[in-house]
Each structure stands twice: as C-alpha cells, then as structure tokens.
Structure prediction request, 324 residues.
Amino acid sequence: MLAKRRILKVGESSEFRTPMLLPSFSSKGFPKVRETLKTMEEYIADEILVSAYDLHYKFIEGPFDFASLIYLDSGGYESSKDSELSETYELEHKPREWDVEKLQEILENWTSTSPTICVSFDHPKNRVPIPEQIDRAKQLKLTHANHGRALLLKPESEKSVRLDLKSILPHVKKMTGFSVIGVTEKEIGNSLLSRMVNIAKLRIALDEHHVDLPIHIFGSLDTIATYLYFLAGADIFDGLTWLRYAFADGDTIYRHSFGMMKLPFTTNTDLVEASCWSHNYRYMQDMKLTMGRFIVDRDFSHFGKHAELIQRAYQDMNALLEGA
Prediction:
C-alpha cells in the first residue's frame, strides 16, 4: 500500500506529519489576495502556501507567523500564463519579470519565525534538464536553520507540456538534501489514471533511495482527485480550488450553489465568498482525518459517497502497475 503517514522534515529540528492539505494564496486570478489572506488568518493555524513572486511585488506581506508551516513557492505559477486544471477559463494574466535573483532576495530577507519550505526556482522560459534542475535547487541559498528545500520537477523544455518519467527516474538517487519532491498535477500525466500511475512509479523509485521522502502535488486540491493521488503515494497537496469553489458532501461545486444550499437567500455575495473559504478550510481538515482513518484500517468506506469510484480507480492503478 503506497498511502501512509510520512514525516516532513524541515531544517534542523522541525517535523510535520502527512498527509497535508495546504490552503494556497496567489495574486493570479485573485487580485484581492491580500484581503483574502487577512480574512483567513483567524481561521488558519496549520500550513499555508504563498508565493515569493507575490511578496516581491507587494501583493501580500509577511511574515505569516500565524501558520505552523509556510510553503514559500518560487513564483513559477504567477510568472507564467499556465492555468491549473481547476480553472474554468483562461484568465487575463500579464506576468511581470521574474528570475532566480528575485527569489533569492526574498529568501535572504525572510523573517518569519515559522518553519519554511523553499520551493526550487521555476520559470516557463527557463527550462533545463532534470539533472540541472536538481543542481539548481541545491544551489538555492537558505538563510535560516528552520528552512527546508522542495525540489519541484518541471518539463525539460519550453515546448514540453508533460514530465517524462524516463528522464526523471534515473536521477532519483541524486535527489538528496530535499524535504520534499514536487510535481504539478497538470504535468505528471494526461489523464487522472495516468497521473495516479506516474505518481505511484515516482513513489516506488523514491523509496528505493530516499525512504518515505514526501511527494507534493502542486495545483491539486479537490474532493476526489486529492484522495486518488494520496492512494498513489502522494502526501502533500495544494491548489486554489478551495478559493474558486465550495466543497460539499464529497463534491466540488460552484460557490453560489453553496450559498443557496447553506445560507439565507439574502446573504451578500461577498459574505458567501468568505463563508465558502472558512467552510472549505474546515472541510480540508476533515479530509486529512479521513486519510488518517484510511491509513489505520484500509477501509475505503471512509471516503464517503465516492468510495466505490475511488476504490475502482485504485484497483485500475494497481492493475497498470502490475502490467508494467
């Protein structure tokens, strides 16, 4: 069984248990990201993900000490026009200049007392081979003892839209010194099942050299796919779906539908939005507990009304892995 509880080690002394679902914040598609963060400060006591790009351009301000752990993303998402799978249309987004020097400057001036995971540099116009990605990630300077590194694996050329496991697996042994290995949901496969299989293959390869090194799926956080990638061996999940939609009874639905179902019809739209965010955060905590219950007894019924679908996808993944 690939799904299990693993330990995320950050810096010299901090340890956190997986699975972990990160509420993410980004200026891309959310021009009021500063206000959103402020609204959620009183609810969040666990982990969050914010972008170094947004810090550099003053869309948000730290130090975010209310969070127990901070993922400091490298700004690749904001510096590109790429969309997440949860986006329903391509938003008008005009990326600003971004480079590794700007990222390094943010790291050097980082003052938060919370343990921080620093994600390796990524830019859509600066793609390099996997060995170079590993080396570049190791060269990023961490300035505090409570910092850890995350290696985010990306396609090797500007024209590539997917990760190639054949290019990754031979270099897994070199992935030393990282707290976590990351991939994006969109790039790890071209279908739900292929993503599950590829995540499982990465999990198996990592365990051969770095036992229980956590896997982070960037840009993936909903009420079904998160469970599927968890069963494939992934441990940490983040995304903006929790801000775009509402989580309800196993489904991911439109916010206005959530408002009609759960709130008075007279509720102001802005209040519906804020209510969705706080509700979704609590729902994510319940999802973590669901994963924990599954780890204990391997009972698929914990996944609720979609249990049969989730179990079937898990069985299909294992069938393909056995064939490989």
Summary: The mean pLDDT is 93. The two ends are 17 Å apart (CA to CA).
